[in-house]
Design goal:
The protein is an alpha/beta fold. Helix content is 47%, strand content 15%.
Length: 220
């Protein structure tokens, strides 16, 4: 199965992508992981990615697409994959479609994890990260054993600047304008299914697995 996970920041699509990939036995492929991998390489592509990341800028569409294509061309993706964080725009979606079609393949599902804005703000403002090791906690769903202290290394837990309410609201507006049109793009292709992400992660994962188990939207 070749699956794309979409949804607003804080909807839990990353968590669901990992759970789904594990249950299906296919790679979980996130743009963040791919960029970090490319950055660690000495290849020309990796150096280009590093230049943008080092400046704190978004990696352009053409470069992002090149990184994704290279990852999807690896042998472990032959039996399928779960894409997390890509595509983020219509341009990227069209390039992914061209790449798969060129290899006589197609997506089988696009899973939209839907959560209301109030819940997203509540979730993200409760998120804390360790200053020392980077471990992530959530005061609502995954609190540390000791308030303000990392379970793993004893470091101090802080709220990141991008988890402030004003920043979260701005990120949601960006999602609505740039990424939400993907929902229409994939609806037109008969690939989109929306699941209620306002549940326990395990329950959401069960809902997704039940859907994909009913049969692929596309059989190629």
């Amino acid at each position: 199965m070749r699956i794309v996970m979409v949804g607003p920041p804080g909807a839990g699509k990353g968590t669901q992508a990992k759970l789904l990939a594990g249950r299906l036995g296919v790679p979980h492929i996130s743009t963040g992981d791919m960029f970090r991998s490319a950055r660690a390489e000495c290849s020309p592509l990796g150096k280009q990615v590093s230049e943008y990341l080092d400046r704190g800028e978004l990696v352009p569409d053409d470069l992002t697409v090149a990184v994704v294509k290279r990852r999807l061309s690896k042998t472990d993706c032959a039996s399928g994959f779960v894409l997390d964080g890509f595509p983020r725009s219509i341009v990227q979606a069209e390039e992914l479609e061209k790449f798969l079609t060129g290899n006589r393949l197609g997506l089988t599902h696009v899973i939209n994890v839907q959560v209301g804005e109030r819940k997203i703000v509540e979730r993200l403002t409760a998120r804390r990260s360790c200053q020392r090791c980077g471990a992530i906690y959530n005061l609502l769903t995954q609190p540390p054993k000791r308030p303000g202290t990392c379970d793993a290394c004893g470091g101090t837990l802080v709220r990141r600047s991008d988890d402030e309410e004003e920043t979260i609201t701005r990120r949601l507006r960006v999602y609505e304008s740039e990424t939400a049109p993907l929902l229409h793009f994939y609806t037109e292709r008969g690939l989109l299914v929306t699941v209620d992400g306002d549940k326990e992660p395990g329950t959401v994962a069960d809902d997704i697995v039940r859907f994909v188990s009913r049969g692929c939207v596309r059989k190629d």
